[in-house]
Write a structure and sequence with these properties.
This protein has helices at 5-15, 17-35, 53-56, 63-70, 74-92, 94-105, 109-120, 127-137, 143-149, 162-189, 194-202, 207-231, 239-245, 251-254, 257-267, 271-299; strands at 46-47, 58-59. The chain is an all-alpha fold. It has two domains: 1-61, no CATH class; 72-299, MetI-like fold (Orthogonal Bundle), CATH 1.10.3720. The protein has a two-stranded antiparallel sheet with strand order 1-2. Helix 6 (94-105) packs across helix 10 (162-189), helix 13 (239-245) crosses helix 15 (257-267) and helix 15 (257-267) packs antiparallel against helix 16. The radius of gyration is 24 Å and the shape is globular.
């Protein structure tokens, strides 16, 4: 006789009671701070006025979405967001994988641990402090600028030049995340069956053939999962880092959706258009996540669901 869903849940709870209690705080957090606030997205379809509240504000339908797409900055912020995400996906995403492969080949434990510690450290630096360091290092009198001047580069504020903003942004992302991001790949490599490597060595396989035929295939499942999650955030570049680094002179390459929402919503207090842009951003991210998951399941046989 088939057991009902309610009875199965009760039975599973009795069997794994403490696991349910462990996950309860996480569920409560997401319900309170992630799902309940979703009700406020209705202001994207209103001419929202804080004094009148959600119930008292006038409904305007898709007017806020139309205003954004017809505005002079929609094309710029969307293209900048996609380009910056593509650069990070192309250059920043593979770096932890490469570092993990290199560390896995090291035989000296002392040197290996030293390299790991040095590369992990930037992760624990506050984003505000990190951005302050970048601003100082790339100023006209900064360390990086003076280093470039040794090769004939004219000293100038690099963050004031639109053509340098994206390389600085991506390079700082790599610097901050490469070590911490490699942990999950190193953990995966530690579980690779040593007998496979020994068999490959007996068959005469060199270091690169072992990496190509054994090590990288072992990383494919976790790489696929991480890539799906990263593609699902392709329209969600961090507002905090952008706001701390950019200035009006580099808006043409630095202004992204998150910083635009900040300016419109907080600075100009146009909450309805900010909510509309945020909703558009979330819908695109969801679509990209579903597509990436389908593509990975179809061609790599790995997926989130």
């Amino acid at each position: 006789m088939k057991m009902s869903l309610g009875k199965r849940l009760v039975q599973d709870y009795q069997k794994h009671k403490w696991l349910y209690w462990m996950i309860a705080p996480v569920l409560v957090y997401y319900i309170i701070f992630e799902y309940i606030p979703m009700a406020g997205q209705v202001i994207a379809f209103q001419n929202y006025r804080p004094a009148r509240g959600i119930m008292g504000s006038d409904w305007v339908g898709f007017k806020n979405f139309i205003s954004f797409f017809r505005g002079p900055f929609s094309g710029r912020v969307i293209s900048n967001t996609i380009i910056l995400s593509a650069y990070e996906l192309l250059f920043a995403f593979p770096m932890p994988i490469i570092l993990a492969l290199l560390l896995n080949e090291l035989k000296g434990n002392i040197f290996k641990r030293t390299v790991q510690t040095i590369t992990y450290m930037p992760h624990f630096i506050s984003l505000v402090i990190m951005c302050g360091m970048i601003v100082n290092f790339t100023s006209s009198w900064g360390v990086i600028t003076n280093l470039f001047s040794l090769f004939g580069f004219t000293p100038t504020n690099l963050l004031s030049k639109p053509q340098y903003y994206r390389p600085i942004y991506v390079a700082s992302t790599i610097w901050k995340t490469i070590g911490w991001g490699s942990i999950i790949y190193l953990a995966t490599l530690s579980n690779v069956d040593a007998s496979l490597i020994e068999a490959a060595e007996i068959d005469g396989a060199g270091r690169f053939r072992k990496i190509y035929h054994i090590i990288i295939p072992a990383l494919v499942p976790i790489i696929a999962i991480q890539l799906i999650m990263r593609i699902g955030q392709i329209m969600s570049q961090g507002a905090e880092k952008t706001i701390l680094l950019y200035s009006p002179v580099v808006y043409q390459t630095a202004d992204i959706i998150a910083s635009y929402v900040y300016r419109i919503g907080i600075t100009e207090q146009n909450y309805s258009i900010a909510a509309a842009v945020g909703m558009f951003n979330s819908i695109v991210n969801l679509a990209m996540l579903v597509f990436a998951n389908w593509f990975s399941r179809r061609f790599v046989q790995e997926s989130l669901w």
